[in-house]
Automatic annotation (TrEMBL):
Signal sequence segment: none
EC number: 2.7.4.6
Protein's recorded name: Nucleoside diphosphate kinase
Gene: ndk
Domain named Nucleoside diphosphate kinase-like: residues: 3-140
PROSITE patterns given in the database record: NDPK (PS00469), NDPK_LIKE (PS51374)
Organism field: Azospirillum isscasi
Length: 140
């Protein structure tokens, strides 16, 4: 197994409910290190660009509105197999299908307000990290 980095976003439904610390504990307890973190308010243009791959999906407009409805916490998580590990810790996209003990099972409100985003593959992880972080901000 290789040490990887993945992009994580704690979404507005979770920052609104003051859940950043509880979610970070799930990452750390699950063996991942938070090697970069910043709380920001995304602009509409940034959210549209970040989720550009979903532009043609019926939920795109609502997703962008939701992602700019409050602050988000952008993070880089590092660890063995971090991309897959983070997806296990998050649970299924739809909280109705998420396993016990996962972030989405415990905290998500809906498939849209699902508390966290995580990169889905090495290529997207590299792109998503570079979208939000400069190299100098990543201290492993
Ligand atoms: P995320 O991992 O951030 O990637 C795209 C997001 O779109 C997803 O999590 C969900 O929050 C949101 N979304 C809203 N509706 C749907 C849907 N029907 N299928 C998949 N993702 C959806």
């Amino acid at each position: 197994m290789a040490v990887e980095r993945t992009l994580s976003i704690i979404k507005p439904d979770a920052t609104r409910r003051n859940l950043t610390g509880k979610i970070n504990a799930k990452f750390e307890d699950g063996g991942l290190r938070i090697v970069a973190q910043k709380r920001v308010q995304l602009s509409q243009a940034q959210a549209e660009q970040f989720y550009g791959v979903h532009r043609e999906r019926p939920f795109f407009k609502d997703l962008v509105s939701f992602m700019i409805s409050g602050p988000v916490v952008l993070q880089v998580l590092e660890g063995e197999n971090a991309i897959a590990r983070n997806r296990e810790i998050m649970g299924a996209t739809n909280p109705a299908n998420a396993a016990e003990g996962t972030i989405r099972k415990e905290f998500a409100e809906s498939i849209e307000a699902n508390s966290v985003h995580g990169s889905d593959a090495p290529e997207t992880a590299a792109q998503e990290i570079a979208f939000f972080f400069a190299g100098i901000e990543l201290v492993g």
